[in-house]
Amino acid sequence: MPRKSLKQRRENILHNSKNRIAPVLDVLIGIEDPDDLMLEIMGVLTDVTPVPDVGKFYTFLYQPKSENIQYDAHPLVAVTGVFQWGFKAINFHWGEPRQYTYIELLGNLYEVRPEELDDIRTLPFAKFQIS
User: Fold this and answer.
1) DSSP states of 66-128 as a string?
2) pLDDT tens-digit profile, the chain (131 residues)
3) What residue spans define the domains of the chain?
């Protein structure tokens, strides 16, 4: 029987594990570019949604419309309130509450499972910028 490729083995591990981040930490550690890390993270977090649920964790791409403000382009958040305009959440990179409007999201929200939170928080994928 032919040996499975690294990609096939990785997909099998991810499929059978509740924690999708832990099996790829070795690959992700050492990547220093936040954009590269975010792409890898989005590749393994397959649970996506356009609207969050209160009490769940997410990461996403973000670009505010306001000018001249500092922001995190790759937030990792715990959602505390959902509204028609967007949502309120605690941003783990900032360590404080923030508001996010739906029109400022660049795509979907990637759900982070509770058992993945400690592992994903070890990765330096925050991207602080000024709009």
Assistant:
1) SSS-EEESS-EEEEEEE-SSEEEEEETTTTEEEEEEGGGB-S-EEEE-GGGHHHHHTS----E
2) 556 565 555 555 545 568 999 988 988 888 889 999 999 999 999 999 999 999 999 999 999 999 999 999 999 999 999 999 999 999 999 999 999 999 999 999 999 999 999 999 999 999 999 99
3) 6-130
